[in-house]
Amino acid sequence: MLIFSRKKRVWLVCGMLLLCLALGTAQEQHHVKGELRSDDTSVGTDVIVDAFDQQTHIQVDSALAGINGQFEFRNLKPGPYKLRVRRLSGEPITEQLVDLRSHSGLLEIRLPRTQIQKPVSGAVSVNHLQSRPSKKTLRYMREGQRAADKGNPESAAERYRLALALNPDVAEIHCNLGVQYIHLGRHREALTELREAARLDPSSAPVFANIAFTLLVTGSTGDAEHAARRAVSLDSRYLKGRYILGHVLAQRGTNLKEAIANLKLASAEIPRAHLVLAQVYARTGSYEEAKAELTTYLPGAPDPEKTKIQSWMAQLK
After folding, report:
1. CATH code assigned at 37
2. What value, to the nearest 5°, has the Cα angle with vertex 100 and ends 115 and 38?
């Protein structure tokens, strides 16, 4: 797995080799814009609107709402739908029926006041000041970092749990514990920790990139895309967020042009993006482009991979 550091913070972004891409077929897209309305100034950073065909009860589209409540469906045709509003965690908020055969203009969904997450203040609260890591907490964090660097996630997780017992309101510790749980294959626990990190620090692009990766490896590709988009929206220059978004889009096969664009940006910092790009190009029959990406990736590839890559390049025509 790939571990990235930012100011000595450990964030897991993505370490899964994309072996098989399920490529979608091109379909006509129908864009429908909407807005969540509430009495509060913000609907939060993790609200999703799912659209279900009212006749078949099949989910046909999903959209991540912005902090201003605006969202956009990209694949809805005229017809009756049930719109379900929920949080990224799955917590339901409200439902609404709408018929796009007789509806035009902006879709409006009124949210119950009791369900609205209040906006996060930019000021530092007294509570936050009191929750600064103690010296003992920092010691446990350093010990966890050393264990992680040595490839011992079990020991690292133990040290981070000790740190959280002393300071449970530090987002960084929750995120790093989530990273170790991913290494251990404990994905449900990883998501719990990462979502708590996002609650404590909803402005962290690396946290949402980690959430996206965990959702991807557990098969929740739709929510993985939402989380990856959140990471990129929080920091468009965060190339690791671009990488995981491109990875998710490639896996879903829903928007390969956007996947390629994000992976090309990410390749400036993450060499493995060249490998994922090669797989996308190969799947779409762009063999020369695939070869070019593999040629760029090959010199720095891990030795166990080089023979396989060379063999693959020889098969591309």
Report:
1. 2.60.40.1120
2. 20
Per residue in 265-291, pLDDT (tens digit) is 999 888 999 999 998 998 888 999 999
Give the list of residues 6+ apart from residue 240 with CB closer than 8 angstroms, or none: 4, 11, 13, 14, 206, 209, 266, 269, 270
Q: Is residue 26 part of a domain?
A: no
Question: Which residue ranges in the chain fall short of pLDDT 70?
Answer: 1-30, 39-46, 67, 88-91, 113-132, 317
- For 255, what's the count of Cα atoms within 13 Å in the CB-facing half-sphere? 15
> Three-class SS string for 151-173?
CCHHHHHHHHHHHHHHCCCCHHH
Residue 63 φ/ψ, nearest 5 degrees:
-140, 140
What's the pTM value of the predicted model, to 2 decimals?
0.64
State whether 9 and 51 are in the same domain.
no
Categorise residue 253: left if φ over 0, alpha if ψ from -120 to 50, beta otherwise: left
> Quick one: which of 266, 312, 231 has its CA closest to 277?
266
Question: Which residues span the domain enclosing 45?
Answer: 32-114
CB 193 within 8 A of CB 178: yes
If one counts every other C-beta atom within 10 angstroms of the C-beta of residue 71, the result is 23
Q: Which two tokens stand for residue 276?
A: 């994922």
DSSP 75-115: S--SSEEEEEEEETTS-EEEEEEEETTT--S-EEEEPPGGG
